[in-house]
């Protein structure tokens, strides 16, 4: 038996495999993976020394915790052919945006415990942000085991399922927003004469350091911002440009729009 089976070895599936092994202390021998693309399976087996198979059925048959990491559009054609294999002791963990616990149970046609997890790609280096929503039937011991597993690849918080769309819109999609912001910061540096490499290094460290300052001091971002903003100095001129560009409104709208999309995916 394998402790963990992962169906779908794409961006998120691989990030979890790598994070579990390299940061979470999960042994490679505890994991079996499958994907519709045999070449992808071979790649993952070679990279992480996990067990691999072209058969999703084998993954379900041999695993206790079955992590679904296919795209939402593929959930039915992935799960339908497997439902006879889900029996006592197996738990489904779905990382699929927008796919509700109830929908997975309906496809399985039985009351198999299902957990919804919304990770993000920094889980690959153990710095993920993960939302977890438990099926009410899952006992405290199993909840702790699953929360500990995902805490091994970053910050894991338990939320009501009704908030999982917001988690998806904020932290699930959030790395893409931050990558865009960091690239724009670097391009600003280039416009002012820095090489892109220098500018990117400075931008990455500024975002990383600023985020860590919030995390380590527990101070509100506005307090820390005011400590940077010298009267009549440079920062207030930059901040004014951000306000003129409606940065805050745009970022709020981005999270809201991605959250709405997640809700649409669940319809
Ligand atoms: N990427 C991210 O940052 C995050 C993604 N997620 C969620 O994770 C899930 C996967 O996303 P992502 O990794 O980006 O997508 P990918 O397309 O990169 O990965 C999905 C993988 O599953 C494969 N696949 C498709 N159908 C099957 C099947 N029936 N059996 C086995 N494998 C199959 C796909 O193959 P093929 O490409 O040939 O179809 C692909 O290799 C999505 O539901 C997404 O909402 C959640 C949080 C963050
Ligand atoms: O874009 C997506 O749908 C997936 C879910 C969250 C991040 N990526």
Automatic annotation (TrEMBL):
Q: Which residues cross the membrane?
A: none
Q: Which reaction does it catalyse?
A: L-proline + NAD(+) = (S)-1-pyrroline-5-carboxylate + NADH + 2 H(+); L-proline + NADP(+) = (S)-1-pyrroline-5-carboxylate + NADPH + 2 H(+)
Which residues of the sequence carry a binding annotation for NADPH?
56
Which segments constitute the Pyrroline-5-carboxylate reductase catalytic N-terminal domain? 3-98
- Main localization category: cytoplasm
Query: Boundaries of each Pyrroline-5-carboxylate reductase dimerisation domain copy?
Result: 161-265
MF terms (GO), sorted A to Z? pyrroline-5-carboxylate reductase activity
Q: Which Pfam families match?
A: F420_oxidored, P5CR_dimer
Give the record's family classification: Belongs to the pyrroline-5-carboxylate reductase family.
The function of this protein is: Catalyzes the reduction of 1-pyrroline-5-carboxylate (PCA) to L-proline.
Q: What name does this protein carry?
A: Pyrroline-5-carboxylate reductase
UniProt gene name: proC
């Amino acid at each position: 038996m394998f402790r963990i089976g992962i169906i779908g070895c794409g961006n998120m599936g691989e990030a979890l495999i790598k994070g579990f092994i390299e940061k979470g202390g999960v042994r490679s021998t505890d994991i079996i993976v499958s994907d519709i693309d045999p070449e992808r399976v071979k790649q993952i087996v070679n990279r992480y020394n996990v067990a691999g198979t072209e058969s999703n059925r084998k993954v379900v048959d041999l695993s206790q915790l079955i992590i679904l990491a296919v795209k939402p559009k593929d959930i039915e054609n992935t799960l339908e052919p497997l439902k006879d294999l889900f029996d006592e002791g197996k738990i489904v963990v779905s990382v699929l945006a927008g796919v509700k616990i109830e929908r997975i149970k309906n496809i399985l046609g039985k009351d198999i415990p299902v957990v919804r997890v919304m990770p993000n790609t920094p889980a690959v280096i153990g710095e993920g942000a993960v939302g977890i929503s438990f099926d009410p039937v899952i006992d405290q011991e199993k909840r702790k085991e699953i929360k500990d597993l995902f805490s091994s690849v970053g910050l894991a918080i338990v939320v009501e399922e009704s908030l999982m769309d917001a988690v998806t819109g904020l932290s699930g999609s959030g790395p893409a927003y931050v990558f865009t912001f960091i690239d724009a910061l670097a391009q600003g540096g280039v416009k002012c004469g820095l090489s892109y490499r220098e500018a990117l290094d400075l931008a990455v460290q500024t975002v990383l350091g600023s985020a860590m300052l919030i995390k380590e001091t527990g101070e509100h971002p506005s307090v820390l911002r005011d400590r940077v903003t010298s009267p009549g100095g440079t920062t207030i001129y930059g901040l004014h440009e951000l306000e003129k560009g409606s940065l805050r409104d745009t970022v709020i709208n981005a999270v809201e729009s991605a959250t709405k999309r997640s809700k649409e995916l669940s319809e």
